[in-house]
Specification:
209 residues, alpha/beta, Rossmann fold, 7-stranded mixed sheet, 7 strands, globular
Amino acid sequence: MNNNKTYYHLILDRSGSMSSCWHQTMIGWSEQIVKINQIAQENPDQEIYVSLCLFNDIIDFPEGILRVNTGEIPSIEKVKPNGGTALFDAIGLSIDKLEFVAGRDLNTEEASVVMIVLTDGHENASKRFSGEMIRKKMDALEKSGLWNIVFIGADFDITSTANYFNAKEKNRINFSKSDINIAFSVVNESLEHHIAEKKKGKINDTFFK
């Protein structure tokens, strides 16, 4: 298997309740990009692509999907958290976007996807996707063995949301908002491990060690 492409996609809650930890979130995202660049430099045989989805009542994909070290990764410094939580739409549209862009690589098993969902609350604003629609999408993707969809709760117990979507135990984690930088660090370590395992020809079906 020559699966040497990884699509890393962060779905980041920017609803009003995230205001209290947005500064730490900005730092975490900035430091994460530095770390992903480092991982790419240390593994030149691996191609890493990064994309971001920001969501409240509106779903936004700034800058599209960019290969690390070849494009300007979007900043979130000017983002002002507000509004509700269209969680289902953010996940559904993110899956659709990744399937469109990376579909050929995924169909030939030349790529894997790591999708991180970071939120501090329950769905309350989606218009296009229902929870059942997302669960069916996720079930199909997980069966391929090429997708890790991970849930992180910030001052929010993500358990019920993760259970509803049949997310694996090691694909979910909770942090306090004051420790959001630690959450990013844990993701960074797990992504580095994911890349290292791929170099051995293995794609783990869980993300956190």
